[in-house]
């Protein structure tokens, strides 16, 4: 029997503890409930049917009512109000202050009649906003938009120039053009100068594509070039365009002399040509003394021979550097240029004979392991 009573008492304690935790009751409340429960158990009074109502919830004064959840909560509330112990409930203080119980009373609110109420404020005058002028209305973007469409490319400034030139090319694509040889010569920026102009490291391949667009725009017939195209092309010209400055035409001086200069290999010759009887001096000597071979003498005077002017002009030549062949061919070029000053109409004949064309060939150097520039030594088997 003792074990059963102890087990039953433990079950009752666990049940009370469960109800207390379910209702959010602290340890002090649980102690109050257990104390009231023990007081009731020690009393010899037993509940009778007369004391317990048959219907409805059990009253708070009934001992049996305290075993139900509602009864336990009501008993705890009544004991909390009667007890002088400090409340250590887990319920927040704000929640306890807001919650109203049946035993609490609220002060009555004074009733204010309609006559005692303050008069409503006078209506305010509402002024309508002015009409929106959509011509001046500017939309503010939700995010920052770059000013250039090529902002996120590797070379935004270069791409801007390319797009602008391509737009001009497409706009004026129907204008008549001339051949590349007839187009005016333009000295475009070199790659290093263009990089400084743009401020970006533009690759060589991309710069060549830009130059092609410039050359296509430059091929438009000069008389029909639009102003915007001319302005765009001038932006990419080198300062001091060498092709824009034309050399002054050479003329015969007051003494009837025509001066010209010629080069061949390492030799340089300066010739003064004047009308005369056909006398030729080279470095103050006769041409026979300077050039002993007939081939060299004929090579030096070939410009006068092919135009049949041997007996009509006197030649005074000064030559320096190189060998005999180089000096003779340098004099040939100088005499041909001087003859053009006197008679410009001889240009087709002189060009066809090759006396006014520059020969830029040089002696090829000897290589190690070779006998000469290209000759290899004879191969011997043993």
From TrEMBL:
A Pfam family assignment: Ribosomal_S9
Keywords, sorted A to Z: Ribonucleoprotein, Ribosomal protein
GO biological process: translation
Electron transport among keywords: no
Chain intervals for the UniProt region annotation (Disordered): 37-57, 102-127
One function term, GO molecular function aspect: structural constituent of ribosome
Polar residues bias locations: 41-54, 102-114
Keyword Methyltransferase: no
InterPro entries tied to this protein: Ribosomal_Su5_D2-typ_SF, Ribosomal_uS9, Ribosomal_uS9_bac/plastid, Ribosomal_uS9_CS, Ribsml_uS5_D2-typ_fold_subgr
Highest rank taxon of the organism: Eukaryota
Classification via SUPFAM superfamilies: Ribosomal protein S5 domain 2-like (SSF54211)
GO (cellular component) term, any one: mitochondrial small ribosomal subunit
PANTHER family with a match to the protein in the record: RIBOSOMAL PROTEIN S9, SMALL RIBOSOMAL SUBUNIT PROTEIN US9M
Family per record: Belongs to the universal ribosomal protein uS9 family.
The name this protein goes by in its record: Small ribosomal subunit protein uS9m
Organism: Penicillium frequentans
């Amino acid at each position: 029997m003792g074990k059963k009573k102890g087990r039953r008492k433990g079950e009752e304690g666990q049940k009370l503890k469960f109800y207390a935790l379910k209702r959010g009751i602290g340890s002090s409340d649980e102690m109050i409930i257990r104390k009231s429960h023990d007081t009731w158990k020690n009393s010899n009074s037993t509940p009778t049917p007369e004391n317990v109502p048959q219907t409805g919830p059990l009253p708070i004064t009934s001992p049996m009512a305290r075993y139900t959840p509602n009864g336990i909560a009501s008993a705890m509330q009544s004991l909390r109000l009667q007890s002088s112990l400090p409340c250590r409930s887990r319920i927040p203080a704000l929640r306890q202050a807001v919650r109203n119980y049946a035993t609490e009373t609220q002060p009555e609110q004074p009733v204010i009649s309609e006559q005692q109420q303050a008069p409503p404020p006078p209506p305010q005058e509402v002024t309508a906003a002015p009409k929106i002028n959509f011509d001046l209305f500017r939309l503010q973007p939700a995010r920052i938009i770059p000013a250039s469409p090529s902002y996120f490319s590797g070379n935004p400034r270069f791409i801007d120039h390319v797009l602008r030139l391509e737009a001009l090319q497409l706009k004026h694509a129907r204008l008549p053009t001339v051949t590349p040889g007839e187009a005016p010569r333009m000295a475009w920026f070199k790659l290093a100068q263009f990089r400084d102009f743009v401020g970006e490291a533009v690759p060589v391949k991309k710069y060549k594509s830009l130059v092609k667009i410039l050359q296509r725009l430059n091929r438009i017939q000069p008389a029909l070039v639009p102003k915007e195209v001319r302005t765009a092309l001038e932006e990419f010209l080198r300062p001091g365009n060498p092709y824009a400055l034309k050399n002054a035409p050479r003329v015969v001086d007051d003494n009837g002399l025509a001066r010209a200069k010629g080069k061949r290999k390492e030799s340089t010759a300066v010739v003064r040509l004047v009308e005369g009887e056909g006398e030729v001096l080279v470095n103050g000597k006769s041409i026979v003394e300077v050039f002993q071979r007939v081939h060299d003498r004929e090579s030096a005077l070939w410009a006068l021979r092919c135009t049949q002017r041997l007996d009509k002009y006197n030649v005074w030549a000064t030559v320096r550097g190189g060998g005999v062949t180089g000096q003779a061919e340098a004099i040939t070029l100088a005499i041909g240029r001087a003859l053009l000053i006197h008679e410009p109409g001889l240009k087709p004949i002189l060009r066809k004979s090759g006396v006014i064309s520059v020969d830029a060939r040089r002696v090829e150097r000897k290589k190690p392991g070779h006998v000469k520039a290209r000759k290899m030594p004879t191969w011997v088997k043993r």
